[in-house]
Amino acid sequence: MQFGVFDHLDWNGGSLTLQYEDRLRLIESLDRHGFYAYHVAEHHGTPSGRAPAPSVFLAAVAQRTRRLRFGPLVYALSMHHPLRVFEEICMLDQMSGGRFELGVGRGISPIENGFYGVDHENSHTMFEEAQQVIMLALTSKLINFEGKHFTFRDVPVEMTCVQQPHPPLWVGLAKAASAVAPAQRGINVVSSGTNAEVREVTDRYRAEWRGSPAAMPLVGMSRHLVVADTESEARSTARRCYVRWLTSILHLWRRSGKTPPNLKFPMDYDEAEAAGYAISGTPSQVRDKVIRDITESGVNYFLCRFAFGDMTREESLRSVDLFAREVMPAVTPASVAA
Questions:
Q1: pLDDT at 171 over 70
Q2: DSSP state letter for 214
Q3: Distance between terminal CA atoms of the chain?
């Protein structure tokens, strides 16, 4: 069982300079406490994402950590030139001594794709082509490719990664049917659904995985998570910060007068926690809920969202410290199987 962190790096309402520094200090804490990896989202033109250039932020992460793995979840490939992304991947892997994790996708928001002049209906084919080009660059010395959106003739490859043939790959999944190809290719996956929804993904992934159970890639899910000394304090923090986080998520949709498709998160925090999207409480309460979620969902990777909304650095660091000291050690194969 591994534990990691997923982060939108959504705006907290204050100084962005200070927010970057606060987040880097939080990431240093993750490194000290032995978390597996830090994953950051990519968003554009919205307060829901203050890392629109993930590689820039992750370059700082590479220098502020020693053991923690890190990467985008995901690079929105429909908005990037694949050669530039490939070069950034190599640089980050080299700068970190081989700790980079490569998450890719097409970009979930049609509004954000539109800012870059990308028709959302075409974004999937753009993503697929960009992904193919990047994988060619990571595994060969020349790039020859001809597609609808990209064409390359004898482009030399000079950059390389520490990790060979390439860094671990990641994708986000919403449906069990989407788990087939990643499982067969050995790609790590993450979902953000309910325990029952995620269980469908993990069951399908295991059914399609062709290697040994011990060598199976990471199959994870994410949860908003607040830990405090008292239940009331944890829940108060979670309620306040969740509202601001969700307001940022909905910002572009409200601005355009549209309704976001397939938004699962309830507007009310208590409803979100009851539905299984969030966890708050004392260390013992959080421990029991985390073990329950892992058992019911079948994941082997648990992604925490320790910083969201207007949460202070002190509140986030407290959650990380209590979680690492009192929750993580209690999550054992015996406790999850119980």
A1: yes
A2: G
A3: 15
